[in-house]
Design brief:
Layout lengths: L6 H18 L1 H4 L5 E3 L5 E3 L1 H18 L2 H24 L1
Antiparallel strand pairs: 1-2
Helix pairs in contact: 1-3, 1-4, 3-4
Length: about 90
């Protein structure tokens, strides 16, 4: 029998972990998460912005999907946090 997941606690944990990871790598990837218009009229984003958008989508999936289906999104969020932390060591 699988243990029931308290999604509110999971989301709180993931948010704290993401925030800490973003802070730790901020010297490498920057402190600003922005989307900006380039000189040629196109749009570009910072790496931190891309991570934040992906993370927000995963948190949304975790909160809106049934508990049994949110396990995959929880794992993806943990993987994303690990990838963010790795950015600090690869650059």
């Amino acid at each position: 029998m699988e243990r029931e997941i308290n999604l509110n606690d999971v989301v709180k944990y993931l948010n704290r972990a993401f925030s800490k990871a973003a802070y730790r790598v901020s010297d490498v990837i920057g402190k600003s998460a922005i989307r900006y218009q380039t000189v040629n009229g196109g749009w570009d984003t910072t790496l931190l912005y891309d991570y934040q958008v992906d993370f927000a989508h995963l948190i949304n999936k975790i909160q809106r999907e049934p508990t049994y289906a949110s396990r995959k999104a929880i794992q993806e969020a943990n993987d994303l946090i690990r990838d963010l932390e790795a950015e600090g060591s690869t650059n």
